[in-house]
Amino acid sequence: MLNTKKLLALTLALLFVFALIPAAAQAAPVYRSLDEIKADGTINIGVFSDKNPFGYVDENGEYQGYDVYFAERIGQDLGVKINYVSTEAANRVEYLETGKVDIILANFTVTPRVITDLSELSADDPVIVISGTTAETYLIANNPEVKLQKYDTYANAKNALENGNGVAWANDNTEVIAFALQNAGYTVGIPSLGSQDTIAPAVSKGNDTLLRWLNNEIVSLADEQFFHKDYEATLAETYGLDYEDSLVVEGGITAK
After folding, report:
1. DSSP 209
2. Are 178 and 69 in a shared domain?
3. Residues 127 and 177 in one domain
4. DSSP assignment of 102-166, as one string?
5. One domain, residues 37 and 103
6. How confident is the model at residue 133, as a pLDDT?
7. Domain co-membership, 93 together with 73
């Protein structure tokens, strides 16, 4: 007898693209300029270590994924080595504010039924979220009645989901679609919730030299369709090629 698990995924529509970069807000800037990074010969880049296929550590202990593919190109074009720093959603801004990283590329349930509308949740139905994500922010602002169960890491959230600690896992649609595709028996109950946003790297507020360089890098990479190549190398196996043109944006320019 098969016991089919079902997943309620409350998702925020998300394009995995690199748009022109917003500088992370902070009170006291601590950062290295572009010239200082080049002089040092190493750039510190924050990425996820457990968010396959975007940023993760493989069986050989090497960082892999969509974000890492772009990071490698950044290092190549700057002529520096890369020091990867594992980060979580909740500490991305902190790592920029304290100068622990120069750039962040870590982009800002087992249940007996498939829920397709938030109204189906009762006051006793906990929804799993990861602290510091847009899913948490959206649900607090738009559905304060929903009981949230918060975790600091993607790994802990996934374990909680698999152990039945919540009736739902709310996250970006790219993440939950990937989870459902990679884990037999899980279903995406709500394919889109909220507005469609883009993923972008971040630098410290005031670090104008690095900001300009990265923005120019993103624009110039459009000439070779770099982010389509990134998608095909790191994400196509998970999402397929049908989504590519609708999800990938080149040059940091999105449709109005």
Report:
1. H
2. no
3. yes
4. SEE-S----BSS---SGGG--TT-EEEEETTSHHHHHHHHH-TTSEEEEESSHHHHHHHHHTTS-
5. yes
6. 77
7. yes
- Between 84 and 134, residue with greater pLDDT: 84
Share of the chain above pLDDT 90, in %: 32
Query: Residue 125: which CATH number?
Result: 3.40.190.10
CA gap 162, 210 in Å, rounded: 41
Euclidean distance between CA atoms 138 and 39, whole angstroms: 41
Where b means 16+ CB within 10 Å and e means fewer, 148-166 reads bbbbebbebbbebbbeebb
What's the pLDDT at 9? Answer: 39
Of the pLDDT bands very low, low, confident and very high (cuts 50, 70, 90), residue 92 is: confident
Answer for the pair 227, 17: CB distance below 8 angstroms, yes or no.
yes
Structural domains counted in the chain: 2
Q: Is residue 4 part of a domain?
A: no
Coil, strand, or helix at residue 16? coil
Would residue 147 count as lying in a domain? yes
Query: pTM value?
Result: 0.68
Containing domain of residue 128, as a range? 9-14+109-197
Residue 85: pLDDT over 90: yes
In a 13 Å sphere around the CA of 4, the CA atoms on its Cβ side amount to: 8
User: Would residue 59 count as lying in a domain?
Assistant: yes
User: Using CA atoms, how far apart are residues 15 and 62, in angstroms rounded to an integer?
Assistant: 25
Indicate if the pLDDT at residue 26 is higher than 70: no
Average pLDDT, the chain: 78
Instruction: Work out the burial of residue 147: count CB atoms within 10 Å of its CB; fewer than 13 is exposed, 13-18 middle, 19 or more buried.
Output: middle
Written as one letter, the residue type at 136 is: E
